[in-house]
Amino acid sequence: MDNYLTKQKPEEITDFFFKITNDFSTSIEKVKTNNSVLDITNDSRIVVFTTLREVANSSLLSSVFLKDYLTKKEWWKNNKNFSLPSTELESYAEARIYSYGVDLSTNYIILSFTHFENSLRSIVKAIPNSKFPDALEDFWRIRDYLIDYAAINSDYKNLIKIFQTIRNSNHNGGFHTKDDMTVTYKSQIFTFEKFKPIKFDLWSTIEFIMTELNQFLFDLVTAPKINRIHFIQHPFGTINFIKK
Q: Cα–Cα distance between 112 and 54 in angstroms, integer?
């Protein structure tokens, strides 16, 4: 069956989400093995991985829908909700497929960063005699303090800076709104130009960042100073969900 052309590669997107969900699951098991007394439903050292995994799982479902349905001509032709002439339907479908892929990447980055940031702030609040006991400071201060305190690779600061800058660009319609900036991590150079959209391949960058982020989080939560904290309350653990 013929596929519509798309600027994304649906198979590669789906493969990425399969991989990253498995990576997060593997990290959860390794962290539990490293510290068997952790509260797996409330402690940020576990929940940070489960929340990121669930965002990836939801995105995986969207990528499967993109791959198995939206890119198939027959699906559009047989769907009674789209009663356009065949010539118009094809251009309409291609535009929707492209936008769907863009929205998928944008939503994944924003939701992942939200959970990531919340978890890191909760860890900083739990540090004995923390420099930022309320963890309300600018995130870059939280990031740098936590990495220095845990005594893990300082290069992770640049990794998170790239992640945060892409998230910020998504908040601004895909444009970098601050001064020109170049960030290097593991010999890869990421250039952000003021008032210009991101130029590097977004999906390959997302895969690179999330794979490295998973390793960062494992290094962080198993670092001796963080590992020996008795309990780190994740914000989700304080929510009382109303069941109807």
A: 9
Write down the residue that tokens 């004995």 correspond to: 128
Q: What is the pLDDT of residues 89-103, one digit of tens each?
A: 888 888 888 889 889
How far are the Cα atoms of 22, 190, 224 from residue 187, in angstroms, in the given order?
Answer: 26, 10, 28
CB 209: neighbour CB atoms within 10 A?
21
pLDDT in tens, 60-94: 999 999 999 999 988 988 888 877 777 788 888 88
Average of per-residue pLDDT across 123-137: 95
Residues contacting residue 160 through CB under 8 Å, at least 6 positions apart: 143, 213, 216
pLDDT tens-place string over residues 229-242? 999 999 887 666 55
pLDDT greater than 50 at residue 3:
no
Chain-wide mean pLDDT for the chain?
Answer: 90
The string of DSSP codes covering 68-111 is IIITBHHHHHH-TT----HHHHHHHHHHHHHHHHHHHHHHHHHH
For 233, phi and psi rounded to 5 degrees?
-70, 120
Q: Is 125 helix (H, G, I), strand (E, B) or coil?
A: helix
Q: Alpha-carbon distance 131 to 124, whole Å?
A: 8
CA distance 170 to 81: 30
What is the reported pTM? 0.90
- 136 residue type, one letter: L
> What residue spans define the domains of the chain?
10-238
